[in-house]
Amino acid sequence: MADSPTRASRPTARPSGQSGQHSRVQAPAERSRPPAERSRPPAEWRTAREDVLVRLMFTPGSSPLEATHTFLEAFLAERVPPAAAQRVCLAAYELLSNATSYATLGSDVVFEIVQRQTRVCVRASNNTIAARVAMLQQQLDKIRADPEETFVAELRRSMTSGVARPMLGLARIAHEVGLELELETSGARVTVTALPR
Amino acid sequence: MLNTSSLRPPDVANVEVRLSPEGITLLGSITTKEPDRSLGAFFRTVHDAALRSGLTELRVDVRGLGFVNSSAIRLFIDWAIWVSQPARTSYRLRFVRNPNVTWQRVSFPAIAQLAAEHVVIDDGR
Predict the structure, then answer these.
(1) Which of 3.30.750.24, 3.30.450.40, 2.40.50.100, 3.30.420.10 would CATH assign to domain B15-123?
(2) Cβ of residue A86 closer than 8 Å to a chain B Cβ
(3) Does this model's pTM top 0.90?
């Protein structure tokens, strides 16, 4: 881990989609709402002032997962309720695992935990190749369609596949702990954010 | 009863493995990136020992596992597959879980579906 935990504030939240393409995987509760409600502006907290609780930088291919998980468990235990800590820890592990695994060499992986009002979000960004961005978009589309079905399908694929299943981790974030997944791209830079409903 | 004399739990960061004649108990968090090399290999030796011992049931208590990564979930899937292989005279695999732990509540029903006749989910008290 290059940085020690930092606490810094940003004047405003990053405007969604301003720097590139942007999509959001909806939680089941939101998907079940009527279309008119779904298209309403995001909740106020989404564009609220953002406090960065943690910002860490890693090199691609590094193995920061165990140490980061241990640190975050201790860090969050003092700051958020246990259920929220459980959600954030899972999202943090899986997003960071994917980001460090698929980042292109020579670019930093940036991992952040941010707080908007009382809600805690997890964000990981990295540079990657276009094919990976396209695959990630496809994966998030499947999760958007049905988080539970995607989760079970990924478990089944684990039975027959000898390769790592990055999508299982994303499906866990959406299905197991009920967070939404947002994808933002800007050139080769891809950012995935897990945020509460 | 499981013969535990030849079983050596692996040294894996953040995970404690306890052996008993009924099976194994796992405590802590599985965060290692490739748990198949350590825990997975150990699970396989436990499975083989259970077969040799002619067990009818093996208990895997995961209530104390607060966190597991996706690679670790696959270990439990693998074990469910091993016990359900038709050519083997196998045993029943009883996962003792804590339904208040989210990953255990969500994952084990799906795993049990993969090997329904050989896997039991037990909401341990």
Answers:
(1) 3.30.750.24
(2) yes
(3) no
